[in-house]
Amino acid sequence: MSFRYKQGDRVRVKETLTLGHHIRSPQYLRGKDGVVADIRGSFKDPELLSFGKDGLPMANLYSIEFELAHVWDDRPAPNGVNKIYADIFEQWLEPR
Predict the structure, then answer these.
(1) Is 45 exposed, middle or buried (0-12, 13-18, 19+ CB in 10 A)?
(2) Which domains does the chain show, CATH number per domain?
(3) Which residues lie closer than 8 Å to 26 by C-beta, 6 or more apart?
(4) Would the pLDDT of 24 be above 80?
(5) For the residues of 59-86, what is the DSSP string, one character each?
(6) 44 contacts: CB under 8 Å, gap ≥ 6
(7) Is residue 68 a contact partner of residue 82, using CB atoms and an 8 Å limit?
(8) pLDDT digits (tens, 9 = 90+) for 26-63
(9) How many Å apart are CA 89 and CA 66, to the nearest integer?
(10) Cα Rg for the chain, rounded, in angstroms?
(11) Is residue 23 pLDDT above 70, yes or no?
């Protein structure tokens, strides 16, 4: 399976909600910009699995790095931490 994004690509988490799907994207990250930190691989699609389907076609999973201040309205970083990471499937990402 080919991957749409590579490490270092800038992406945005989609805000679109599709009726009838079991949403697998954290609410607090929707509409936020990040950078592809790692490619995790291809897995059965958890949205399809949640409805008892076979999870095919496979879905690509990425680790996305977000600036903490961008995610939580410029709150100060606790203990010097200024980034967070989340694993997000390709169908929830769009290029920036």
Answers:
(1) buried
(2) 10-95 (2.30.30.50)
(3) 86
(4) no
(5) EEEEEEEEEHHHHTTTPPPGGG--EEEE
(6) 54, 55, 56, 58, 59
(7) yes
(8) 888 999 999 999 999 999 988 888 888 999 999 999 99
(9) 15
(10) 14
(11) no
